[in-house]
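Input set for joint prediction.
Command: fold jointly, output tokens.
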Amino acid sequence: MNKEADVKLVQSPAKKKRRKVHSLEKKTARGGYLFTLPFILGFVIIYLPVVFESFLYSVTTIERINAGESYQLVWAGLANYREALFSDPNYSQILTAGLRQLVLDVPAILIFSLFIAVLLNQKMVGRAAFRAIFFVPVILSTGLISQIDYSNTSLMTYMSDSEGIGTNAAQSTSVAEIVSAMDIEYLFSNMKIGGGMAKYVSSILNNIYNIVNRSGVQMLIFLAGLQSISPAIYESCNVEGASAWETFWKITFPMISPMILVNFIYTIIDAFTSSTNTVMSYINQVYGEAGKDTLSVAMAWIYFAIVIVAVVLAAALMSAFVFYQRRD
Amino acid sequence: MNNSQTEPRVKRETKNTIKVEFDRTPFWQRMKAKFITKNFLTKVIWTIFRYVILIGISYVILFPFFTKISSSFMGPEDFVDATVKLIPKNFTLETYKYIFLDNKYMQAVGNTALLSISAALLQTFVCAMIGYGLAKFKFKGNKILFLLVIFSMIIPHQTLQLSLFMKFRYFDVLGIIQLLGGGSRWFPQLNITGGVTSINLTNTYIPLALLSATGLAFKNGLYIFMMRQFYRGVPNELEESAYIDGSGIFKTFIKIILPLSIPMMITIFLFAFSWQWTDTFYTSLFFTRTSMVLMKNVIAIPESLKEGMTKYAAGQSMYQAAIRNTCGLMIIAPLVVIYLFCQRYLIQGIERSGMTAD
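tokens >
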């Protein structure tokens, strides 16, 4: 079919020039639709109904009839939402704690992954080996493994005494702290920054395993972004006498800023699937309880709505500062 | 640097040869000029700093694996013995043996491999196709479609888990089966399928295959985004010359574009495969029956090891953790092998993607 169209295209006389252009346009448009057809079909047949039904479930309760062969939805209004926010004893507490943890984790992951990507982008001995090691968590510490890690309570401390690395995020209060909060506080008291900051930094350092595990893909995205910066810019900076510090803030940082926005959104979305996400695991627990499945949907929607509104606001704010290089 | 330059002394030795004597700068002075400079010192300090940080974080990443491996060879006695740290005293392979036998490891590997390989292959191909369509063809709604891809990535499937389950538990395409089964509101007299108004697709591979084939499975939005950015960097001249030579759109895609994007596709295959391999969300959502042994079922304490556990009750929780970690090690063993072969492509693919966010 395509071949015929091609032949026509080549042989059509000069008189019908306008029509030829039109048919080529049509042809590329048809090609585009054909290539994206799987997604269009899936989006219309599966995804949109699923999103819509999910929303529908959050305002109903499900009654199964015919011994589970089919089901009936009973309108419940905002009852699920009300129960989640006001009646459930744990939800609002876990929600605020989870949101606070998210606010603390996201900058840590972004800064860490950018820092490591910059380090891994430089030429040095053993770069390939370091890269291979740093991307190990992307492949090997997801899903089941991070679930096992999360339940490792005492083993890591036992195996390694005080110098160990806890794989468990809740472990930071144990003996196995890599850096004690005292040292950090001492360091920060000289800098007059305050105790909150000190606590934040020491909590990050003690959670370093968790942070490293969750910043793999971000590191890859940053590395790709760094690779796309033209070396000519760095060369001219060098010639003009800029220091490495200046080059980073004046060149690398603005050029990588679109990637920071992408990674910011990705990190937050990824946090939903993380096994250390307390809100999601609580929602899963509620989902497992009999007769509370629609309540869990309402909870998930509340959580998602809060996060997405915050993301949109933060992304709008950040996009004012994002620098896009004009490419010709 | 400013070593005093004296005139070289010239001596006539014979009629035709002369001897020239320089005042050569002494060795130490030359070394000093070369190495004790601000530039060099900052370079050294920066290099040391960089290696300390990189090695330190590599330690953080790799050390848990070392402890997991060493504890997997320990018998239950070792967990009550305070002198045993990283090196097992009672070296044993029992843990591996009983996970292999009791937890039906081979069956889980077979089932999960079939599931992961087929899902990853489908996802890689479909995402390449969609990414290519979005990157290279101008058509109405191209931009909107790309936004929809991002949108499908933004709503986490965890939020949709109930409706995803219900969708495939009571599967129906646009109400057609309901219509044929006589369940619809307008044609209740129609009854071809004998009262069946929906199909139960849970406990089969079909839900994941459907999600993969439509680019809606786990993180497929990311893959489509990556493929699109990659194809935007491929020059149009390639396809144009193929079209002029009489090749159709699909033939061009299969014969010219796909071979070109193999590093990128290996990257995506690696992601899709390993994330599906260790996945808990979809497998526990769609596979509710325990007769279907998947990787998630491997993580359990084998019956045969419970005897040693009660004997040394003090180390019980740690022994259990060690067994669970051994299960984890056995689960990721195939992934480690694949990673060792493919990590080169992973970084290559990402570096060549020329990813920018515009």
